[in-house]
Design a protein that fits this description.
The complex is a heterotrimer of chains A (227), B (271) and C (250).
Chain A: E1 3-7, E2 12-15, E3 24-27, E4 30-33, E5 37-42, E6 45-50, E7 62-71, E8 74-78, E9 85-88, H1 89-93, E10 113-120, E11 128-130, E12 137-138, E13 143-146, H2 152-156, H3 161-170, E14 173-176, E15 181-185, H4 188-203, H5 210-218
Antiparallel strand pairs in A: 1-5, 2-4, 3-4, 5-6, 7-8, 7-10, 8-9, 10-11, 10-12, 13-15, 14-15
Helix pairs in contact in A: 3-4, 3-5, 4-5
Chain B: H1 12-23, E1 39-43, E2 51-57, E3 60-71, E4 82-89, H2 104-119, E5 129-131, E6 135-147, H3 152-165, E7 168-175, E8 178-187, E9 195-202, E10 205-208, H4 212-217, E11 220-226, E12 232-238, H5 245-270
Helix pairs in contact in B: 2-3, 3-5
Chain C: E1 26-30, E2 38-44, E3 47-58, E4 71-78, H1 93-106, E5 118-128, H2 133-147, E6 157-164, E7 167-170, H3 174-179, E8 182-189, E9 194-198, E10 201-202, H4 206-236
Parallel strand pairs in C: 4-5
Antiparallel strand pairs in C: 1-2, 2-3, 3-5, 6-7, 6-8, 8-9, 8-10
Helix pairs in contact in C: 1-2, 2-4
Classes of the chains: A alpha+beta (227), B alpha+beta (271), C alpha+beta (250).
Chain lengths: 227, 271, 250
């Protein structure tokens, strides 16, 4: 039995003894909401799904960023967070990297969109990024769509259910960054539908039948598919 | 320009999409090259001001307020009232705006708008004179930029014009060579309606009313203000780039044509 | 010496027809500016005030960065056209003081430890001023902080009370503030029941002080209900709660 309620900062979500997660503070036997969001109370504990808020980097997060500066040792990347990320040149060129012999612009230029991973985020310096692994690196084309980072879990869905459904129905490859940046590549009509579906998810996160609504909007058969 | 804050970097992918669309005469938001975003003008929003207007040009939002008092004229224009136009890009308006004294951007904005108002003789300043050399009406128009999404020039210009056209001031009469307030309220002596049209050049294409993303990708910008007779009364080229002479003439023709349409709209809203 | 006019009539009503403990009409809207991370607009009587929040973000200049918490910056600014006589746009001493007290009223509610090495900026712009603009600014700023999704212990809400014609009244307007004999802006965190702003201007007897102070808090709580409504309206629309299984990624 899950109890759900809309909360604003300062609201008491529940009283008693519960396990609790982010955006919740325990005061005595009261559990207080720290954000505007949808709170869930069950035997498992208290969970608050925030409706708004910044992206705070976590190690291993996949993010999509924009190169905004280049210095001798790497690329400065806007990851839509309170700090810019840094992609060290040595991560890309390897151990033999040296500013004297390697021109960073041959790999990524200012304005490029990069899919990357948060390698580390220590409190004393900017987040370090890496592009090691499959699917990371420069994203050469696609439609850039922005969504509140708090809505990304909803966009992805349980075990990817929502994002896979969108991708199938629109014949688009959709890359989702935890930081709220999404890039969709595919047929023009598919891209338009992807953008609309994402907007729907952002505006109606709290709706009971959101999945059904999105499914209905996207229609039955995939566009331009070969069955 | 602040050296510590970053400037808006437009994504390479977006710029490529923009250029591709421009070649077909279209823009990212579906507009034609010579199309303004929807212009929304509301007047009388600040009751304590003598006149006021809010202008929304797409997502760009500005609020102009007029305050009228009496004061002494400038020594070199003893028979003219004072008209001062000021603009402030509030830190509210953009992540790239800082609090503090006006930046060179805000000062240029205010002066270009002021020039359009002054050179077109929109307000007959001699009608604002009470006692020559001693006492005149002083008209201050202050513009707050509330949200930046490109083309502050046109939005500010339309707000100043709309606020002045709907402003009311206390009528003063002269008794014993001194100004005396009456209970009557009169409009500001507005004769003409200058209209500014701002264009950006991206590659070889001129586009009207650039939004922030287009401004981030543009090579240069030109603002041309025209009056009711289709004369050009002010112009300003912006950004450290160039423009070909024939493009300047193309821009002039666009401003005259669009200026006429926008003038009708402003006059309709401000009555 | 001109006689001071009566601000409360024989019928007990004030110049604008309000009772001694009545608030002016208040309108609140959340999310009014597109670029800001969070924003809110308030109309409180004739006050028209916009509040915007940017952050958490990088600190500039860098030497001001705090290693273990966010730096909260606030600016209260009055538009030149916001008052009867045009105000010079440069910050006055009054605005600088009010900026400081507003920051100190909001900061206790912000969990600054969650955002080390960042800045959280709060911009309050008064488009029209008519008494009580600082508490109105605080009320709107608190909503802007919630809109930006910054972790907050509580909202902050304010109200100003004072003395007019020897009587304690709630929510002074500009005339009552100028011609009355006391003004007391108070702000609280309503759930934690803690005062975060208190300023006193004028002469109060011990009883008047208590009455005005408690009245300000009582009225503040009324305004808090409006803050809740404004936030709920923006984020939950028609207010329907999801009742089915939420399909959210872990």
């Amino acid at each position: 039995m899950v109890e759900r309620k809309q909360v604003i900062p300062g609201d008491v979500i529940a009283r008693g003894d519960y396990r609790y997660g982010s955006y919740v503070e325990k005061r005595g036997d009261m559990y207080i909401a720290l954000r505007v969001g949808l709170a869930e109370v069950s035997r498992e504990g208290i969970k608050l799904n925030p409706m708004t808020g910044p992206y705070i980097p976590r190690p291993d997060d996949e993010v999509i960023g924009k190169v905004i500066d280049i210095n001798g040792f790497g690329w400065v990347i806007d990851i839509n967070s309170c700090f810019d990320g840094f992609l060290p040149a040595s991560f890309v060129f390897g151990r033999e990297f040296s500013p004297a012999t390697h021109d960073l612009t041959t790999k990524f230029k200012v304005g490029d969109i990069i899919g990357c991973r948060i390698e580390s985020f220590e409190r004393s310096r900017d987040p370090q990024l890496s592009i090691r692994g499959h699917g990371y690196g420069k994203i050469p084309k696609g439609e850039i769509i922005k969504i509140s980072p708090t809505k990304v879990p909803r966009l992805i869905g349980r075990r990817g259910a929502m994002i896979n459904m969108i991708s199938e129905r629109t014949s688009c490859d959709v890359k989702v960054g935890q930081n709220g940046v999404v890039v969709a590549v595919g047929p023009p009509e598919g891209v338009v539908k992807t953008a609309e579906a994402i907007k729907m998810i952002e505006n109606e996160t709290h709706a009971a039948d959101l999945s059904r609504k999105v499914e209905e909007y996207l229609g039955g058969a995939p566009i331009g598919s070969q069955a | 320009m602040s050296m510590m804050k970053k400037n808006y970097v437009v994504e390479t992918i977006r710029k490529a999409q923009m250029v591709e669309l421009l070649a077909k005469g279209k823009r990212m938001d579906g507009r034609a090259l010579d199309e303004h975003r929807p212009i929304r003008i509301q007047t009388g929003i600040i009751q304590k001001a003598n006149g006021s207007a809010r202008v929304n040009l797409g997502n760009t939002e500005v609020i102009a307020g007029v305050k009228i008092a009496t004061g002494t004229p400038f020594p070199d224009t003893p028979d003219k009232g004072l008209l001062v136009v000021n603009a402030e890009i509030l830190p509210l308006a953009s992540a790239y705006a800082e609090p503090g004294p006006p930046s060179e951007e805000a000062i240029e904005l205010a002066r270009v708008v002021d020039r359009g108002i002054r050179e077109s003789e929109m307000v007959d300043l001699t009608k604002l004179c009470l006692v020559e050399g001693k006492s005149v009406y002083t008209v201050f128009v202050d513009v707050n930029i509330m949200n930046v999404d490109g083309n502050l020039f046109d939005a500010t210009s339309y707000a100043v014009v709309a606020a002045l056209r709907t402003a009311r001031m206390k009528k003063f009469v002269v008794e014993d060579d001194k100004p005396k307030a009456t209970e009557e309220e009169i409009p500001v002596p507005v004769e003409r309606v200058p209209v500014s049209v701002t264009m950006a050049r991206i590659g070889d294409t001129l586009l009207v009313d650039p939004m922030s993303e287009e401004e981030a990708a543009m090579d240069m910008r030109i603002t041309i203000t025209t009056d009711d007779d289709g004369n050009i009364c002010a112009s300003q080229k912006g950004e450290a780039s160039t423009i070909a002479p024939d493009k300047v003439l193309e821009a002039a023709d666009l401003s005259i044509k669009l200026g006429k349409e926008i003038r009708e709209k402003i006059m309709e809203v401000t009555g | 010496m001109e006689a001071k006019r009566k601000l409360i009539g024989d019928d007990g009503l004030r110049l604008d027809g309000r009772a001694w403990n009545q608030l002016r009409p208040i309108k609140l809207e959340v999310g009014t500016l597109k670029n800001a991370d969070g924003s809110a607009y308030i109309e409180w009587g004739k006050n028209k005030i916009m509040a915007a929040v940017y952050g958490p973000k990088e600190v500039h200049p860098k030497h001001q960065v705090l290693p273990d918490r966010a730096l909260v910056r606030t600016r209260y600014h009055m538009a030149p056209f916001s008052v009867d006589e045009r105000k010079n746009p440069a910050p006055s001493r009054r605005e600088i003081e009010i900026s400081k007290v507003i920051r100190e009223a909001l900061e206790p509610a912000v969990i600054v430890e969650d955002y080390p090495r960042t800045a959280i900026e709060v911009w309050v712009e008064v488009l029209q001023s008519d008494g009580g603009s600082r508490v109105a600014g605080i009320t709107a700023s608190s909503l802007a902080l919630a809109d930006a999704g910054i972790n907050l212990r509580d909202l902050v809400v304010g109200c100003s009370c004072g003395i007019v014609d020897g009587q304690v009244v709630a929510d002074l307007d500009d005339t009552e503030d100028k011609e009355g004999s006391g003004d007391m802006p108070v702000a609280i965190m309503p759930n934690l029941d803690r005062v975060t702003l208190l300023q006193v201007d004028g002469i109060y007897s011990r009883d008047q002080f208590q009455k005005a102070f408690e009245l300000a808090i009582e009225k503040g709580r009324e305004v808090y209900a409006m803050q809740r409504e404004a936030l709920t309206k923006k984020f939950f629309g028609d207010g329907q709660v999801s009742t089915s299984e939420e399909e959210v990624a872990e």
